[in-house]
Amino acid sequence: MNWSVWLPLLVIASSLLPGLIIFGLAERRVRLRTVLNLGGALLKMALVGIMLWGVYNGQQYEVRLALLPHLELVLRADALSLLFVTLSSVLWLVTTIYAIGYLEGSPNRSRFFGFFSLCVTATVGLALAGNLITFLLFYELLTLATYPLIMHRGTEVSRQAGKVYLRYTVGGGALLLVATVWLYTLTGTLEFTPQGFLNDVDPQHHAALVMIFVLLIAGLGVKAALVPLHGWLPQAMVAPAPVSALLHAVAVVKAGAFGIIRVVYDVFGVDFAVLLGVMEPLAWLAAITIIYGSLRALFQDDLKRRLAFSTVSQVSYITLGVAIAGPIAAVGGMVHLVHQGLMKITLFFCAGNVAETLGIHKVSEMNGVGRRMPWTMAAFTIAAFGMIGAPPVAGFVSKWYLGMGALEAEQAWVILILAGSSLLNAAYFLPILHAAWFRKPTGAWPDERDFGRKETAWALLFPPVVTALLALTVGLLAMAPFSPLAWVEFVVQRRFVQHE
Amino acid sequence: MNNDLYDAALWLVVAWPLLLAVPAVNRHLPRPHYLALIPAALLMLTPLDVSSTFTWLLFGAGLNIDSDSRWLLAMSVAIWLLAAAKLSQQQSKPFAQNTFYLLTLTGNLGVVLASDVVLFFSFATLMGYGFYGLLIQGGGGAARHYLICLIIADLLLFEALLLFSFNHETLLFAPLAEVSPFYLLMVLSGFALKAGLWPAHHWLYASYRSAPPLPTLLLALPVTLALLGMLRWLPLGDARYETSGIALMIIGIVSMLYAARQLLRHSAQNKQLAWGSLLASGLVTTSLGAGLADPLLWQQYGALLYPLIALIGISQASFGYACSPQPRKPQIDCSNTIESGLTRCGNLVQQRVDNALAACYLHSYRAWIKQYPRSENGQGLTRLLAGWRSAITLFVLLATALAWLAIW
């Protein structure tokens, strides 16, 4: 038997097993915990690399495990799932390094890293899910794994944030479960199929399918932070910076957005979804979320809350790209999954750095921080310009394809949304850069920690610089054969019918 | 082998100053502002047309130098040499000034050499934000104004980029066939903002008024390169776009008239620089409008615009180099006059006093004409014409009328 067919399971195990072991480690076993964390991350990356090469060359990786009669746990590595898995595994590695530095000397690190690993396991699991029930299982596991991370600090505020998070996500999960069961009763299958599996459903069930679509989007929209289901996200910012980075860039919001992609392309199919008339409302919902998130971000003085509302806005670019229902827009939406991940994680890392090093939590406290922490703010600057859509950072490439996709699909109004959003992005990011680089500090920093001659700890500085450079590189080398854009074009070319 | 060498030399023109922009690099090198210009100067002196494309870069980016862009490269090298000389006179350097200086330089050279719209846009963005970093050192007001105009202009040009790419098979600067009116609107609006043409000239005036010496000198760059942008992005010499051409000519002529009128009012050197810049931009814009309206005219005379823009840039920069800050003279008092009513109307719509063109023009004309009492022997008329400011105004009006007649 070829061992490579077990690769999907091995990829999941590469984070699950270390996570379970870490739970049992004593707090003082720092070195072993670090080895398990980093070793698991590196192993995952290696396994993902093998799968990438295999899928590119036409190989199939699939594992089926019987759950219940007629219900299987299916893990399948296809081009789309590997896009998300690769992003998750690369960013998990840098986040782990960051978290090791961030939490140095903090209590309950074994608990933290245990749930951290479970979170990534769940993310990778839902990315590799081959049917809706597997997706649902890992989706709920993600909720359970991230809840303790949000409450990690143990303060009243964090407990309250955790409760809000749980209310939203469990409610979303319930809607997802109802939709899944309903769909199964109508079709008898939940298998993700290119171009969907609902084309042969009796037209008299179309109204029911529209309801199912609404329920699925509502369930996924909680994690994807679609308005008005986004309320948990800004409150969850009380969590430590590595958790915020994980939530916004690697795991939770991306899981929601990825789920929407799966539902539109592999459950309903683009053409059938257009026929049902559900795509245009989805596009409008995404557009409203984009503008709303940016407007709310404008009025936040807390840096992480500003970034949270920015995430609410930016993740909806993915939904918008999917909802426009054209191949070019699909490329723009899917590639933004990667690009936004790189840029947003950089921003959260930098926010964590200024908080840990100088005690800065608010934008109004950031005067002159560029002089004190030039490398951190240089990384922040690159990521911020990427969010605005300035070339050649990755965000420009996403907006380019979304704009071109809008023109191709004859939905020019989307370009106005993109322009408005870019203007708002500039309005809430540029003042931060201005304060950091061009204003002098008003006094002593709120809570400065001494790192000697260094700007901050290496484990805190290295990850944002790396992710900022990645964000710049994937934009600059967008046309390179190994770029995320090239992979997404491969996904779209391979899987989706041209929408006419 | 030779081709690879020329390709490397071409890319080195932008890569070298970009590398020097890293603080850790330029801190350890002597005179990085001069060093950064060496590849550009060598390329300028090499009498070869070179082109290089890197298919992996952005959406397939390329640089090239030909007889037209060589003028602008020469202008850029000359301006940056002046800037380097100005910089060496500075006693103290503000935080990160070297980095912003070199980023602006990189952007400038990239704009001149870019052979496709996306790379042009990318370098223009780099230059724009780099220049903001230099301008902000003179205080917040003018720089903020500049930044707002830059952001809006970049948004407009991004939409134009999308339209360009959607309607053409290539992103290269090739003769454009049919373009939509929407594309023209985006391009003209975007570059008019960047060039500081009337009525979007406030950032330029405010910048000249308050910028420190170095950015004052470099203000020639955003203006001239915006004019270059119009030259490259507009469908000149191919199809006839009468409406857009006429609209552009009107903007150009009004810019010139307004600038001439303001030149009469202000004697401070830095303000005269601002209005001189607007006057020159207006002239180029009028010519572009004429070329847009009449492709045959463009085919005959269009190539002259490259050396003209280069001359304008070098002149502006030279005057900027020589300019020293002067105290502000009080504005003409428009109170207690009929014109002040119009001025107050202008203020109500948040226009500045000197923007109520008709009001203050009338007032200043009346105040000025009082200096020349009537004379039976015509001496008053002679004195009227004796002042050089009146001569400039009349000359511009005459030249504009002649140009108009020639076109029609």
Q: Largest beta sheet of chain B, briefly?
A: 2 strands, antiparallel
Class from secondary-structure proportions of chain A:
mainly alpha
The major beta sheet of chain A can be summarized as:
2 strands, antiparallel
Which stretches of chain B of 5+ consecutive residues score pLDDT under 50? 326-340, 345-361, 373-378
Our Rg estimate of chain B from Cα atoms comes to: 22 Å
Sum up the overall morphology of chain B in one term. globular
Topology summary:
The complex is a heterodimer of chains A (500) and B (408).
Chain A (H helix, E strand, L loop, with lengths): L6 H17 L6 H27 L4 E8 L2 E7 L1 H24 L6 H20 L3 H19 L5 H32 L18 H18 L8 H4 L5 H10 L1 H17 L1 H7 L2 H20 L4 H21 L3 H32 L10 H4 L1 H15 L5 H15 L4 H26 L19 H19 L7 H12 L5
Antiparallel strand pairs in A: 1-2
Helix pairs in contact in A: 1-2, 1-4, 2-3, 3-4, 3-9, 3-14, 3-19, 4-5, 5-6, 5-10, 6-7, 7-10, 9-10, 9-14, 10-13, 12-13, 12-18, 13-14, 14-16, 14-17, 14-19, 14-20, 16-18, 16-19, 17-18, 17-19
Chain B lengths: L1 H19 L2 H4 L5 H4 L2 H8 L4 E5 L6 E5 L1 H23 L7 H17 L3 H19 L4 H28 L13 H15 L6 H9 L2 H6 L1 H14 L8 H24 L3 H25 L1 H7 L3 H18 L15 H11 L8 H13 L9 H8 L1 H20 L1
Antiparallel strand pairs in B: 1-2
Label this structure with key terms.
heterodimer, A: 500 residues, mainly alpha, two-stranded antiparallel ribbon, 20 helices, 3% strand, globular, B: 408 residues, 72% helix
Task: Give your account of this protein's structure.
The complex is a heterodimer of chains A (500) and B (408). Chain A contains 20 helices and two strands. Chain A has helices spanning 7-23, 30-56, 79-102, 109-128, 132-150, 156-187, 206-223, 232-235, 241-250, 252-268, 270-276, 279-298, 303-323, 327-358, 369-372, 374-388, 394-408, 413-438, 458-476, 484-495, and strands spanning 61-68, 71-77. Chain A has a two-stranded antiparallel ribbon with strand order 1-2. In chain A, a hairpin with a 2-residue loop joins strand 1 (61-68) and strand 2 (71-77). In chain B, 72% of the residues lie in helices and 2% in strands. Chain B has helices spanning 2-20, 23-26, 32-35, 38-45, 67-89, 97-113, 117-135, 140-167, 181-195, 202-210, 213-218, 220-233, 242-265, 269-293, 295-301, 305-322, 338-348, 357-369, 379-386, 388-407; strands at residues 50-54, 61-65. In chain B, strand 1 (50-54) and strand 2 (61-65) form a beta hairpin. In chain B, helix 5 (67-89) packs parallel to helix 16 and helix 14 runs antiparallel to helix 16 (305-322). The longest helix of chain B has 28 residues, at 140-167. The termini of chain B are far apart. The chains are: A mainly alpha (500), B mainly alpha (408).
